Amino acid sequence: MEVVIDPSAILAVLLHEPERDSLITTTKRADLIAPASLPWEIGNALIAGLRRQRLRLDDVQAAWTSYEEIPLRLVDVDMGRALDAAAEHGLYAYDAYILETALSRRLPVLTLDKTLSRAAGQAGVAVLEI
Question: CATH no. for residue 14?
């Protein structure tokens, strides 16, 4: 099964959030797909955690090392359609990249982001529940 995964789910695994075990179980046999922008978004989130003093530098480095071990297929996104989806659903561009990836490939989304989950449902995209 192919699944479009968003940064909230990946960060929950990397940072040992309570949903971690369920996410790992859900994705164990899945082929994970994400927009090509995903590494930049993960890096940005890790540095934001460092700047807000929620993470230490060694936490950031360990999380990035773990991220690099996740088998992901990064794909290009149709920017025009993603921007249209962002405007239509009130999403940030990065969330719209996830939505457009799922829409264009007719795949479910795995997210912990309630706004993205709601937009996906409105767009007719299946959302995997954790």
Answer: 3.40.50.1010
